[in-house]
Amino acid sequence: MRFAVALLSLLGVASVIGTVLQQNQQPTDYVVKFGPFWSEIFGFLGLYDVYASAWFVLIMIFLVLSTGLCLWRNIPPFVREMKSFRVNAGKKSLAAMKHTALIGGGLSPEIAARYLNVQGFSSKTVEREDGSVLVAAKKGAMNKWGYIFAHAAIIVICLGGLIDSNLLLKAGMLTGRIVPDNDSMFAKDFKPESILGSGNISFRGNVNITEGQSADVVFLNADKGMLVQDLPFSVELKKFHIDFYNTGMPKDFASDLVVTDKASGRKTEKTIRVNHPLTVDGITIYQASFADGGSGLKFKVWNLGNPGRTPAEMDAVSMSAFPLNLGSEQYRLEFDQFTAMNVEDMSAPQEKGKLSFQTAINDVRSVRQDKKFTNIGPSIVYRIRDKAGQAVEYKNYMLPVKQEEDYFYITGTRTGLEQQYRWLRIPMDGSGSIDTFMALREHLSNPEVRKRVIAVSAAGAPENIRAVFNQAAENTLAIFAKGGYLALNDYLEKNIPPAEQEKMQGFFYQILYGAMNVLLDDTIKTYRLPDWQPGEARNRFLLNSMDAYTGLTEYPAPVLLQLNGYKEVRSSGLQMTRAPGASLVYLGSVLLVLGTVFMFYIREKRAWVLFDKDGVRFSMSSSRSERDLQKEFPKHAAALETLAADLKKTD
């Protein structure tokens, strides 16, 4: 018994893990969640597929054996006990019971037996060799079925779990008949020993189907590889539907499916959604998830090695990869999932700090979160991989995002999945684009333009310092054009004594701001951009542009991609299971309920009425309901006493 309880406790803990920790996900998901060290340990322990892990299956086998032996040993005595009326109860043992009393004369065995029958007892009257007569009665003997049903339920549930635990699959892998595939990407590339036939009695697999496409296999996670499970039908996704809450969480998502039987060609059309699956040929199809199915994307692309303001146009498809050749440099552009809706909390104000060369580098501001949910529009995640295989991940939003008082086109960068995005924020101009910023960037990179702008800036300086001011402004603008605030900061640290650096920071900043203000006027005039009158909004745009320019000098990509249009295509994540053991689990659950009812709501009680030469003795006992018997016994004793008195008067 203690061994079985210990095994049940282990199964309970494992079931909690299997419920809390999402099972059968991609290995990279677990690495992101737990890190490379713990993800390996948890994988070794089988926590990513708890119910099919070797130790979980072994526990269930031992539990079946232990509980089965318990039933084998106890059912025969339980059955004998239920049939027995305990007619061998002796005079002394009845007198020693806690609930016993002597009844006055006049009562006969027939009357006593009839009374007990009326009270719901089954009775049996026996005459003994010593001349005494015993009326033995019982009620609630079916209570023993509760123990039998409860133990049988554990066995039946565990057997159902063993059937659905891929036990045969693991045996095939141990013998080498089944070999998981680590390398293949498509089902057609899997070797025969990695493909399971449609007659497999139990499996649980996943597949993503894009709108308008179909699939006739699912993929199973097995050890550190994958297996392909053939299906007796094909599944086509006609249309995927999704609704969202205002928080951005999915409210409901559903798939319009057409299931075509391979043998007969019979078609079944059904819309499935979460908790409303479809069962065909013993295989249940669940709506499990959704994802991007390869959406058409349009980009504006700026080559950051060239300061030109005019972007190139590029068409791409999400979930795909493309070569990116920039002269002698070769890269690989890998697009991840496209998301048409991004709901963020945008109500918290941005942090504000003292303006300095360090705090002015504002390319690391993240989208703030508070309690105001806002859809900030479509986004795309992509990676740019160099020849050495090193990649940087980017996340670009198509629409401008409001932060504080202004709107920005933002792109996040990170070099590892465990890192947070660092955000590049390019300010939006009055026409809702980044054209003014890109034109300002092109103008700033032109030495001739800088000289012209510096001449205009120096015109307002006193004659005696104009030459010095002109040289200082030229140096400041040239340094800023090369590396933004970071380059200016390095110049100050290397060439200015520490005691004078703070003073010179303010001096350089005033020169830089004045020159950039003139440069913005010249940019608007040169490229015939919409006029922008002096004011607070224009000043903020200029400051934000200087921040963004600094961020671009440190931007790790050779190109800047800005999402400019899309045609969304969705895919539906389906989970397909064949689980014959589920019916056994349901049966076991019914047995468990019956066992609970029998054990806790059926009270076993025993009663004896002994007639001998010394009088009539009435005794009762119960295995569990002692409190009920304390109230019930006096009532029965009093009723029998009354019957005895009435019969005596009649006589």
Number of separate structural domains: 5
- Overall, the morphology is elongated
DSSP strand count: 26
Classify the helix fraction into a percent range.
25-40%
Number of helices, where a helix is a run of at least 4 consecutive DSSP H or I residues: 14
Biggest sheet overview: 7 strands, antiparallel
Radius of gyration: 41 Å
Give the terminus-to-terminus CA distance: 57 Å
**Sequence stretches where pLDDT stays below 50 over 5 or more residues:** 348-370
Supply the helix-strand structural class: alpha+beta
Question: Which percent band covers the strand fraction?
Answer: 25-35%
Mean of residue pLDDT values: 86
Q: Would you give an account of this structure?
A:
This protein has 651 residues and is an alpha+beta fold. The chain has 5 domains: 122 residues; 101 residues, TATA-Binding Protein (2-Layer Sandwich); 120 residues, Tick-borne Encephalitis virus Glycoprotein, domain 1; 124 residues, no CATH class; 82 residues, no CATH class. Helices cover 39% and strands 29% of the residues. It has 14 helices and 26 strands. A hairpin with a 5-residue loop joins strand 18 and strand 19. The longest helix is centred in the N-terminal third of the chain and has 30 residues. The two termini are 57 Å apart.
